[in-house]
Amino acid sequence: MKHRSFGTPTETMELSTLLQYASRLMGRMHHCHHHMHQGQHAQGKVISILLEHGPMSQSQLLEILDIRSSSLSELISKLERNGLISRERNEADRRSFIVSATKEAEEVFSNQGNAERESIEQLFPSLENKEKEELRRLLLKIVDSLKDQPEPKRGRGRCHHDHGLKKGKRDMNGRRGHRRK
What we know:
Blueprint: H1 9-38, H2 41-53, E1 56-57, H3 58-65, H4 69-81, E2 85-89, E3 97-101, H5 103-110, H6 113-121, H7 129-147
Antiparallel strand pairs: 1-3, 2-3
Helix pairs in contact: 1-6
């Protein structure tokens, strides 16, 4: 389905920039909330997902979080060591594990519900309920159209282009950079 651009390319760019900026500011607020109330952000996110959606495979968690499998393995190990999750073999596929939040995780995170709702309300103080509904509808429309786009090839990290690593220098994974002229 083709979408008509909003006004001029400059206006479309401004919309994109504003959306990215709003997302970044909201992410910062959300990040600060998690650090104040739930400790490590990534660990809190894993627990929140498991509490909301129930037990799931590591591959499902990986898809939701959109992080490297090595990062998820490290997170899961820390959470398991702290008694917040448990892992059991997947009976349907013995090569994988089902990850579940423990009772301890439920207790720790149940006290955070009110604080999180208050924090979320602070994200939209200037919008009326009707405007929030319209924003939700528009964001869902954007998300649906973006999900239809082919995913870019992945290389280093989330994207496949060089982030300016100078020739001969090594990145944090030990790979040598090569800046094109």
